[in-house]
Design a protein that fits this description.
Oligomer: single chain
Strand content: 15-25%
Helix content: 25-40%
Mean pLDDT: 86
Strand order of the largest sheet: 8-7-6-9-10-15-12
Shape: globular
Radius of gyration: 19 Å
Largest sheet: 7 strands, mixed
Distance between the termini: 43 Å
Order of helices and strands: EEEEEHHEHEHEEHEHEHEEHEHHE
Number of helices: 10
Number of strands: 15
């Protein structure tokens, strides 16, 4: 992934608060802007750019496209499955009923786990291939978009959107749509990359989640909370967790290993250095998820909110 350290592009209104956002950097040819008031960051897209086309291509879910899951979606899921499953007890405790909608459900792997936890599931997925796989595996309703939900569909007890909002050109509008799908007293559960973490702050040019046109919105804890609450939801909990296959490196270690690791800031946990580093992190009180330090290091944010 190529990055240009020179800020470029035009100033534009912030997509969250409307204040002036100024050029921050260029990534893969896309200017990334940062709001001076609320610090929200977003990519500036060409007029008429169709983000949805990326996710409708089968190559996005394999290794065949310019933008795709590394080693394919199934490989990705094997690495994150336990983190998704760990969310279900909290969702079960906070949701007031069994009806769940997942936005961005892919082939239904999370919905299958949710069904085993007693939820009645429904999905939304742009990819035709993944929709069909989900329908075949679960026999549940799966729609191509929010707009395709039948008009008579009642609001859901729980709406989940894991690793979705960062893909939205208008995150505020998306969150308002999501709120309307949540029943009064119901739950919204979200996750997104954490752009408050050490890697994003210290070396943004190398941080993997600054990746337009796949990721076009870049949240920290404060801006994610603001986006949710502007839509009329009330935040119940927000925290950071190490929800991936790798563990973070302190800056001194990243600098030492950079010539050998081509600028990567994380280590796979199974190797010797990864195991030593995990022990170091735990001794400093970094749990998965957990302590205040986790917000500094972990690359994933989780937020749970209710509709009053």
């Amino acid at each position: 992934m190529n990055a240009d350290k020179t800020p470029g592009g035009s100033a534009a209104p912030c997509k969250l608060c409307g204040s002036a956002a100024a050029p921050f950097m260029i990534r893969d040819g896309f200017p990334i802007l940062r709001c001076a008031a609320c610090e929200f960051m977003f990519a500036l897209l060409p007029e008429g750019y169709d983000l949805t086309a990326l996710y409708k291509q089968d190559s996005y879910w394999s290794e065949g496209g310019e933008i795709h899951y590394l080693d394919g979606y199934d490989h990705y899921w094997r690495g994150v499955r336990r983190y998704y499953e760990a969310r279900l007890p909290r969702i079960r405790a906070l949701a007031r009923g069994p009806r769940m909608l997942e936005i961005g459900c892919a082939d239904g792997k999370f919905l299958a786990m949710a069904r085993r936890h007693g939820f009645e599931v429904c999905g939304i997925e742009l990819s035709h291939t993944m929709r069909e796989r989900c329908r075949e595996a679960l026999g549940c309703p799966v729609y191509a978009s929010i707009d395709e939900l039948p008009a008579a569909t009642p609001p859901f007890d729980c709406v989940v959107a894991f690793e979705v909002v960062e893909h939205m050109a208008d995150p505020a509008a998306f969150m308002r749509q999501l709120r309307e799908l949540v029943a009064p007293g119901g739950l919204a559960a979200l996750s997104t990359p954490n752009f408050d973490c050490e890697g994003a702050v210290r070396t943004p040019q190398e941080f993997m989640h600054f990746s337009p046109p796949a990721h076009v919105c870049y949240f920290g804890a404060a801006t994610l909370r603001a986006c949710v609450e502007q839509a009329g939801l009330r935040t119940v909990a927000i925290e950071a967790c190490f929800a991936g296959q790798e563990v973070p490196m302190p800056p001194w270690m990243a600098a030492m290993l950079r010539p050998l690791r081509r600028g990567k800031r994380r280590l796979r946990p199974g190797g010797l250095i990864g195991k030593v580093l995990k022990t170091y992190l735990r001794r400093r009180g970094l749990k998965l998820p957990g302590t205040p330090d986790a917000m500094r290091w972990a690359e994933t944010l989780e937020l749970y909110a209710t509709r009053e």
